[in-house]
Amino acid sequence: MTCHGKVIYTQGQREVIACEKCGYHHVLPMYTETELETFYENHYAESTPSHLFAQKVLRISKVKPGGRVLDIGCWDGTQLAYFKEAGWDCTGTELNKKAAREAEKKGVQVYQISIRAFFDRFADERWDVINVAYILEHIPAPREFLARIHGNLAVGGILVIEVPNDFSPLQIAYTRHQATDPYWVTLPDHLNYFDTQSLESLAVDSGFEILVKEVSFPMELFLLMGDDYVKDRSIGPGCFQKVVKMEEALLKNNPEVLGDMYAALYTAGIGRSLILYCRKS
Q1: 68-72/89-93 β-pairing
Q2: Is CATH 3.40.50.150 the classification given to domain 47-280?
Q3: Angle between helices 142-152 and 196-205 (to 10 degrees)
Q4: Quick count: other Cβ atoms within 10 Å of Cβ 66?
Q5: Are the C-beta atoms of residues 121 and 114 closer than 8 Å to each other?
């Protein structure tokens, strides 16, 4: 059965559809792997918009006290550096040449090859934890990708998925209020767009048990309050620093509240990103 569904948005010669076959929004026609690899290797220049790297290590360590961790699309290796400091055996993949070099400077092993080439080369390897942060939205075939990950995880291994929460209620409210197009549709960068239901279904169908569901801070609240970083990008860093101060204060004085808040926001589908901690079932 070919992909089909309601057209959500049109950009140039391509459409974003609510695919009835796949269960999530994605671009159609899909880009080829060659087109995407060229883009990411030479042109892509976006760092992971998350700073709570230490919290991820702490959360995982409660389930897995240590072992081998693989960070797929590790960018400049910041997340892996936190794992390394905690005593983990770290490996990363990163297609972008500049980012891979920066990761190597942090003392982590990084393979500057495509994800498919990495899986083919290390098909028999097993990791205790695989981190997939801001990757699924870039993958032409997420189900096939998660199936490969399932095979490379050790028994009882942990998978962490983090994806942008696009076409979210706050984003839709902003675009309607401003009578503007969905600014988060960026081709050929983001190919797939998930919500809580579609992401959970994809994880469960791929053989994973979901342990924890949470979000990152809903940055779109700033847009709705008048700090329009979409129209004026210079506003964005200041908004982000406010979030950093809030999270640091809660982590220092009452970290349970921060976790409870982000778990509650997940149930409402509100958050800049969606995060799942899963176990290989």
Answers
A1: parallel
A2: yes
A3: 50
A4: 14
A5: no
**Which pLDDT score is estimated for 38?**
77
Task: Report domain extents, the chain.
Answer: 47-280
Phi first, then psi: give them for residue 206, nearest 5 degrees: -90, 5
Rounded Cα distance, 22 and 25, in Å: 8
Give, in order, the Cα–Cα distances in Å from 22 to each of 25, 27, 137, 172, 266: 8, 12, 13, 22, 22
What are the structure tokens assigned to 247, written together? 């999270």
Mean pLDDT across 10-28: 95
Give the Cα separation of 234 and 12 in Å (integer).
28
Token couple for 51: 């700073």
pTM of the predicted structure, to 2 decimals: 0.93
Distances (CA, A) of 34 to 37, 38, 47, 265: 5, 6, 22, 38
Q: Which pair of tokens denotes residue 18?
A: 């609510």
Cross-strand partners of 14: 11
Which parts of 6-114 fold into alpha helices (H)?
Answer: 33-42, 53-61, 78-85, 97-105
